[in-house]
């Protein structure tokens, strides 16, 4: 045969097969073996479309479609509300939504659930009115609560196929290059969105800071993004990142934090190469302060700090206490600025952070992890999903992932919160299995998981007084108001949410409360 | 049912389906929907294996397997030779190899082809003894010559499934984080390897600079890498990057370059937002110099420069002539240093660079591209694959991709090389179709593709004298030694290589010469 240029070609060649002659193929006609999307840019090489409605139409969003969102704008996010309200106006129904987290700002979602626009929710964390509506049984089926790593795994494994990922983009150009470090709603890294961008069938960037091509730096690159929509505002900056994160100044909290830092040192981890993660709560931040002191005293250089990143961690990086920071999400403006300026402050995707199915997550290399708890029980199981009486207030986020991956997972908690015990016989909801938890640190003593006898020996040798978890349970019960110990709920009540473990299995269920 | 923690769960929930109880799943047992590899790290969280043989065994490499390599170490690369020689010692046969390019240093491959260890080659560029052996018909089947963007497309689309990607890693840690900016064989960005790392079933990092975890910065992250092998040397630094790339100082070459720069300006591209790519050849570099002058004279700030990057481009970035550089491969030490230090000098994957099947490659946004040619013909078709008499000497690399994507694709060439004409009636091999070529610039005049009448008008209006391509052909024929115009080869001769266009179609075939 001859191709379009008149070149003589064989029709078939041994060792190769049939030949496609030049001029006969178009890229769009390639076999769709990996669901690779067709190029969406028009001839002018712009992916800009005028509004969200146009984007939803071009992406062929139909009833029952799955839309994903990320939560780097946290309680200042406008994007999920805008997209879903537009979907409602278009008459779409029965949507499955997969935001990486849901905050009080997403309250309009409640009405969209009631109206049948949203049918199912998959998320890593949910608080506020949406959580309350789930607890009340508003969804037709159960909400699926995932861990951050489990969400990445489910997306990568094809368990949670996403039709369209909407990426709130603090900065974008008209060809889909995105960064989170510039613009009025700069939020820092975009670690959760990276997984959605890689695996969603269609990816739409929504930005209020459209810059000339190419956006620089680029955190999510153009070859993953189909469309770009410019909107007036993607969020409310003051609710996205706090100006500063505050260390606890309460005596009990500081005492718990100091003990947690001693546990890390006694366990032998404050050595060169030490790696560390902690949350943004008051006690967690205080632990970072005590760990910093210990590292400085011993002249130790750590390998990395990871996680959601705060000013405290940035300071440790800048003081040379860590070689690098792996950052899935910036918690404050100092972290945003550090990520913008310091090459040792690196973004990581949710998959790199915590997926159990990838070739190795950062959590697997973590020495010490500081965890919070709503409740801890006699088997060291931890609940960060519900209140003691079963009301949905959160979910794992990275809790189970970091607990499973780290060598030393420390829960720091007071014995009681308000009137009720936090150390209980059996947690109302298991978020993280006790097998992943090594130590519980309270103001009344330190309990080591009996599975970790060697660790208990080290701590005792270092002069840390250990108590059995049962003793903490007794103390907590004594310190709490009588009658606050709730009896197990009726298992015939309807299941309103499933707490998925990072591997996709169900570690517990959440039942309706009216 | 009850799960492993004793929690009571329904077996089935409407809207969700059957529940997997916690404790019953292992991650490895997940359905392999996306061919997501199982985690390969051992319990110590190290992916280090003692040698290449062990890596080949763990990756279950069998006869007929496909192994990929990247060419950022160019003619200093030791990794492909080491891996294939180990495969030969293990008795493996009929391997398909997919290096992004092949250089003279890969001469040992000839004996491995003869011995039946290597059966097929897919590559973007091949020169030296391996190219000669292909021309002679040493391979059982045809070699597949791809464009850089076409190779990325084929890998992403599943047309070229890779069993194991070997990544020559100037720096790596024991968990597979890789960068190209440190170590004795620092080569800069790793753009070609990024695609292999994402899509290969198994990924092996081969390094001579093993650093403590985590390598920082990270160009290819740990979640894509299965194994790490430490070897004595991955390459010979002096052959990887040149200390400096040299601008031509020959009068004819400079005249051609000056004209090419004038064409860009006359076409109206030297304006704010201008984007530019050129190669590392002497004329191409000289064009960059003239373009720099024009940009400075007009006070223009360009958007980006792209491609394989040289000191000339780095200087333009540092002088503020471009906002950013997109770099798939560093051509000299200055580029390596710039990529290491300057956040505006960004890596891009081969897919982001040039794939026609992704959601939009960088080449699509390119204004002006300077291209070389072994031959150009009356239809503006360009040959960079073979000599005039059909001997394999290269291949497209990014030639066809940038020509197709850029708004202004300029071929710069002398009329003759040595004794033979370079402007010919019909190129011996079509690499890039004439439809993609806008202008041919020679020392004897400028020819505009008749398809681009509007462009011809602009150039004429700017005082650039245009000549028909037929006139350049006549002049080249007159200037060349009689008898150098070769007659078409016999189409019954065996096909030894296929020149694939970026969409996977066959644009030409290369036939055996003995």
From TrEMBL, chains A, B:
InterPro entries: Citrate_lyase_asu (IPR006472), NagB/RpiA_transferase-like (IPR037171). Its main location: cytoplasm. This is Citrate lyase alpha chain. It is found in: Cytoplasm. It catalyses: citrate + acetyl-CoA = (3S)-citryl-CoA + acetate; citrate = oxaloacetate + acetate. Pfam families: CitF. GO terms for molecular function: citrate CoA-transferase activity; lyase activity. PANTHER family: CITRATE LYASE ALPHA CHAIN. The lineage of its organism: Bacteria, Pseudomonadati, Pseudomonadota, Betaproteobacteria, Burkholderiales. It comes from the Bacteria. Its EC number is 2.8.3.10, 4.1.3.6. Keywords: Cytoplasm, Lyase, Transferase.
